[in-house]
Amino acid sequence: MPRRRLPLDDVPTRDIGPYKMAHRIAVGGMAEVYRALWPQQAGGDRAVVIKRMLPMLLEDPEQREMFAREAALGANIDHPNVVAVIDHGVDDGAPYLVLEYVFGVDLFRLTRYVRRLGRPLRVPLAVWIGCELLRGLEAVHEVRDPAGARLNVVHRDVSPSNVFLSVHGDVKLGDLGIARDAPETPARQKGGFRAKGKLGYLPPEQVAGQEVDQRGDVFSAAVVIAELLLGKPLYAGGTEIGVLLAIRDGDTSAFRAIVPSLPDGLGDAVLAGLTPRPEDRVPSARALHALLAPYVDAPGKALQEELGQLVVTALDGEGVSADRTSLARTIERDADWYEAQTPVAPPEETLRESGVAYLVEREGARLGVYRLAELVAAITTAEVRATDVVHLDDLTEGGAPRAVAAVPVLARYLPASTRTPSARRRTQMAETNELYELSGRSFLAILLESLRAKDDGLLLCEDGGVRKEVYLEQGVPVFVTSNRPEELLGEFLVKRGVLERHELDIALATMPRFEGRLGETLVALGLVDAVQVFRHISEQVRDKLLDLFLWKRGHVALYRDVHRPERAFPLQLDPWEVFETGALRRVEAGLEDASLGRDLVLVATKVDPSDCGASESLCALWTACAVPRGLSELEGIAASPARARAGVVLLLELGALERRSYGEGR
Description:
globular; 5-stranded antiparallel beta sheet; alpha+beta; disordered N terminus; Transferase(Phosphotransferase), domain 1
């Protein structure tokens, strides 16, 4: 076991190897960073940066792996636009790296400085900085092992605080600590996204929990470049979850607003790197560089000198020692950035609130006394109604009793179609366009019919006391509510082991301070990472929808032109992935056994499923039935017999297949 020791002092009393330690520049979440001098045989000593792992992390295999990976990758990269890894070793049991010393500021500080001056970067300079960044990123992507094999490295943290600018006008990409020599699959994404990539620069596929490859880095670089031209953050969602929603939805409206003021074609070049779908995005750093290079309309040397002068001005303008700004953050971020991101423990009064009980009355009679978590569950299950009066001293102004519907933190848990008088009137007065009994027609069939009709509206699903609301836009589900307590976000997270019960109680008690939004509350209290909350909300809403595919009784009413709540967390579903998953669940539950006899013969109709956006696998089943096919034949075509049966169910409901009796048409 490595021997533990305290971090070095701000003014070290000893050296590391041949390196003469000068002073500590910063301490980050992973390492302490020092400026040091490296004696040279000729000339003066060379300034370097020493990055040394923090003692409390020495026994963490993942952290040691990150250090080793950074050393190995750095040893194979020699490029003027990448911070050089000069040496590495072990000091008193702690790994350390020796890095190139970049005397200047990072891009985050430079953009903050010019924004404060109200003087945006000139377009040629902004594009040139972006091109230099892309050259460094290309070098990282193209790195090869000693045998010459391409490693397909993904940087994973391309952001302004990892782009370093020297007083000589150099632009260097740094921080290979979380880079990986393979695409990152969802199973390898373990959270910690505040430290592993700033939220505003995460690619949409990483936000969604999908595989991330080098195209994700291209997206991040394109965000940096867009912000250089824009002069402010590209994704300003107001909250961390709002930023992630903007990324997921591809909301580049802020940048598009300035495109007319840019040279012709430059906006389109940048937007080619900001496409949400990786397969539609410009494929590489080299390709994006090629699109942008024509807009650098001045000699590179002149632009480098202009940047160097601006960096010197920024150093002087911030009124700090240039030595202290010499890129401790070559690998570590700002110490004050880490401090700002440190989860804040809830104050003692917040902890006490979790035990407060609230009186609820109905028509002047006492209904009950509830803790906040219990009250939320009671509202969701309709035990407590919108018109019931609640005494909530800490949730209402002046402590006056108010109806549930008049308390925002509680009203959000009412069925969405009953939260406001106007919403209630719309739902009550709207004519029920369709009413389906689930004993005679599956929810899958109902959804497919709405998709074909491109319905906008509300599907109100009820079975006994269970009520779910599915809001449709162009026939695609975009939001789902449920009155089942176990389907609330908090209960969902407790069930998944993401939260402890007492943590949920604290969050619910604190929620009024965050406008009744549990997700934002969890992030603010540091209980769950923002990206994790985002993904869990997406999974939770999706699960609420998929549960409906298994309902065997109850009814569904369609109300057209009833819109989802304004503050709802919108889904961004691939409807056919949901349909296929729902159909597969029905098959696995035996709900389609009666319709899928072994003697079933199927033949394609003129309804082409590709016209409705169906997946390639479904279209392949349809094509195979151009001649009559038995179910057993189709089971050999699909990925599995169950998926073949699920596909047949979908195509039958869509009207793209029809049944034939055995022997008919064969």
